[in-house]
Amino acid sequence: MPEKVTIATVAAHAQVSRQTVSNVLNSPHLVREETRVRVQEAIATLGYRINQAARQMRTGRSRLLAVRIEPTRDGINGSVLDRFLHGLTFAAAAAGYRVMLYTADDDGDEIKTFEDLLASHELDGFVLTGTDHGDVRTFWLAERGVQFVTFGRPWDEPERHSWVDVDNADGTAQATRRLIETGHRRIGFIGWPAGSGVGDDRRDGWQRTMKAYDLDPAGLDRGAPDGIAQGAECARDLLTTPEPPTAFVCASDSLALGALQAAGGRSAVIGFDDTPVAEAIGLTSVSQPLPDAAARCIDLLIDHLDGNPVGTSQVLLKPSLVVRTTA
Amino acid sequence: MPEKVTIATVAAHAQVSRQTVSNVLNSPHLVREETRVRVQEAIATLGYRINQAARQMRTGRSRLLAVRIEPTRDGINGSVLDRFLHGLTFAAAAAGYRVMLYTADDDGDEIKTFEDLLASHELDGFVLTGTDHGDVRTFWLAERGVQFVTFGRPWDEPERHSWVDVDNADGTAQATRRLIETGHRRIGFIGWPAGSGVGDDRRDGWQRTMKAYDLDPAGLDRGAPDGIAQGAECARDLLTTPEPPTAFVCASDSLALGALQAAGGRSAVIGFDDTPVAEAIGLTSVSQPLPDAAARCIDLLIDHLDGNPVGTSQVLLKPSLVVRTTA
DNA sequence: CCCTGCAACTTGAACGATCCAATAATGCAC
DNA sequence: GTGCATTATTGGATCGTTCAAGTTGCAGGG
């Protein structure tokens, strides 16, 4: 076991005071170049690492960010959450922060966890995913002056807090354009029942694009809860109309998979989220730029923590269409 | 902003000393029942939460565990890692620990991260996933006396450290038995090339079960890197033999998916890992008990941290077969 | 010549918990 | 009532860092 190396050890080795070493680390501009170099050398020689606990106790900041990891499979999930988490961890590390996980059964439970984590001074900020209309969590945090960023915008009032989101409408617009460009004229949309911000946005993108190309979207639109069976049913329903669609834009890969089964390979289908399922079966799908989104979340959050706490920022990212064999 | 509540505030409120409050929290047996209750009430009234940073500075323990989150898609990944992480976080929280994430490009990079995290006294232990033959990381950690548990056993020397693993051979054995019981006699195995511990174990389960039922496994076995195309190719190869198999046991859902496509619905197929892909397309698959495995990892790790540091423990869990439509 | 201002650095105290050693309270036998 | 062991409680020191205030040396203005 090597000797414990503290800031005092470094100070003695470099023949300066503790505070000067601290300044080299935190406010280098206060230290003369020559001294700074000498201290840096001592740090390197001794292999000194700052003791986060001690720093945290003094400054009250832990350089730890928290993200909820969900047990369920709705909203952002599976490999989507997986890739998002990796992006967060990577971006946070680059800025000297760490990412911590927590679980919660529901929003109320999550607020209890907020209290726990904050009161024991364990962390500095939150990244929230899967925000709903009038999300209680965001109000709770804002009220207490806790810094946070959401992945997913607050649909009621866009500038209430900082967020990063993917332009869902643009995703389905790209999908619809692709189908139109490959010759389709009657393009159906299979999405979720009206009312969810994300779902409505995805429907909008399809609808607006149809109209932009002078195609009538009337009657080509079905809504059902997420699921393969539901997607299949919607597709069958649309295919038995007098003028059936020749292609489908779907609000999720699950719905798309159902549509694909129902159509038996005779319709073009595009899904949403680019899940492993899509990759596995060659489903063309709209892909969210998750690493980028994660990095922007961290940027925003750290901006709030380090810098100007006034005002909020919003970032809207464009998804991209991953063309495979189904469209 | 409410007043800051420290152990001193609680002590004053309950008319005892700081040390007594500390004892109530850490060594309740030293405190008289009556006093203990009074202190607990003061804690509840004031909403006191222990300051983790201060505790950590004194005790040198952070109550933080770390897990690597991988960018790539091999080994344990996607929704598998997702579910495992949730299990870890949940189990850790129950024991008063938190889970932190870190990234690394390769094993060497990971060891550099170990150094960083440990030197700054940021965490107490590691959960490693995806261990290889003669994993350098485990040697490095063991050498330094750092506590860790792996999910996946060290194939060279089982008792070198503590681990939790799923009985892969039992999984393919269950799959093979299921196929035999539903009337199949010629059952092929599509796995990875020999040499990986997990892959060889999965092949073993199939082979042993075949022999146990007096069925000859000779010539029914193919190996290829993981992937849908590879699975399809192996299946086609097996189907063109003089006595082709009527069913396939596969080492992964990806390989199974390929086999399914190649067989065109005329063969029974069973995959491994019960990924969302399997659920989506109705693929029968072997499911790993991830929440349970995660909980056992945490149990073992915390045992090592809190209690007896002597000896290692091993836990082998049985997977279960999720029967869907393909077998 | 004194005072002010500045840069570069030093010193003592504080953050909030736990550990340690010493003290006070209690019970019991003689 | 005294002595002694047992248990419960106390005050002080401590972990490693940063904050606030202070010291030193030197240049320039009045």
Could you give a quick summary of the protein structure above?
Chain A is α/β, with parallel strands linked by helices and 327 residues long. In chain A, 47% of the residues lie in helices and 16% in strands.
Report the strand count of chain A. Answer: 12
In terms of per-residue confidence, which ranges of chain A show pLDDT below 50 for 5 or more consecutive residues? none
Tell me the CATH architecture of the largest domain in chain A.
3-Layer(aba) Sandwich
> What is the SS-derived class of chain A?
alpha/beta
Amount of beta strand of chain A? 15-25%
Compressed to H and E, one letter per element, the order of chain A equals HHHHEHEHEHEEHEHEHEHEHEHEE
Strand order of the largest sheet of chain A: 2-1-3-4-5-11
User: First CA to last CA of chain A: what distance?
Assistant: 62 Å
CATH superfamily of the largest domain in chain A: Response regulator
Mean pLDDT of chain A: 91
Helix content, binned percent of chain A: 40-55%
Radius of gyration of chain A: 25 Å
Shape annotation of chain A: elongated
Largest β sheet strand count, sense and barrel closure of chain A? 6 strands, parallel
CATH topology of the largest domain in chain A: Rossmann fold
Q: How many separate domains of chain A?
A: 3
Give the number of helices of chain A. Answer: 13
The protein's oligomeric status is homodimer
